[in-house]
């Protein structure tokens, strides 16, 4: 009975595979939205104000960072929790594949969230005239919460890695 339970639990990791495929569909949706924004921008490029152009470009950078985050979570999550990716030798392989454990994935996700939050905060500041001060304050507080969380997670990870080396 114990062996059956352990095998069943181990096999249940494959329930995550459709979730990672779902993330790839989310990446497709993001790519469609990205190019939709570019197609909306191009016809008006000569008449658009500089600040508006910067806001649109920051939005595109934001989408790119989210896309990178999706790829990182999708591929390294699949490798860490479901199965190794069996990529042919003649195909290009990302150099970080197989080297990112769940701890480093967590830290990279936290750093990506901070970067995405930074871009969003910059977009808010570009349009600060039209945003109430209390709302601006909350944007900053939320961003600083992300920064502090990422720092603490990185610090704890570094401490645990150091403790493993000492042991």
Q: Which stretches of 5+ consecutive residues score pLDDT under 50?
A: none
Beta-strand content: under 5%
Computed structural class: mainly alpha
Number of strands: 0
Task: Return the average pLDDT rounded to an integer.
Answer: 88
CA radius of gyration: 21 Å
What general outline do the C-alpha atoms trace?
globular
Largest sheet, in brief, is: none
Specify the helix fraction band. Answer: over 70%
Number of structural domains: 1
Distance between the termini: 36 Å
Helix run count: 5
SSE topology string: HHHHH
Would you summarize the structure shown here?
Keywords: Cell membrane, Membrane, Transmembrane, Transmembrane helix. The chain has 167 residues and is mostly helical.
Descriptive notes:
There is one protein chain. The mean pLDDT is 88. The protein is mainly α and 167 residues long. It is built from five helices and no strands. It has one domain (2-84, 99-166). The radius of gyration is 21 Å and the shape is globular. Helices cover 75% and strands 0% of the residues. The protein starts with a helix and ends with a helix. The protein has helices at residues 2-11, 17-41, 50-81, 102-126, 133-166. α2 (17-41) runs antiparallel to α3 (50-81) and α4 packs antiparallel against α5. InterPro entries: UPF0114, UPF0114_bac.
Question: Which features would summarize this protein structure in a list?
Answer:
167 residues; mainly alpha; 5 helices; UPF0114_bac
List the helices and strands and how they pair.
Blueprint: H1 2-11, H2 17-41, H3 50-81, H4 102-126, H5 133-166
Helix pairs in contact: 2-3, 3-4, 4-5
GO cellular component, one term: plasma membrane
Family: Belongs to the UPF0114 family.
Keywords: Cell membrane, Membrane, Transmembrane, Transmembrane helix
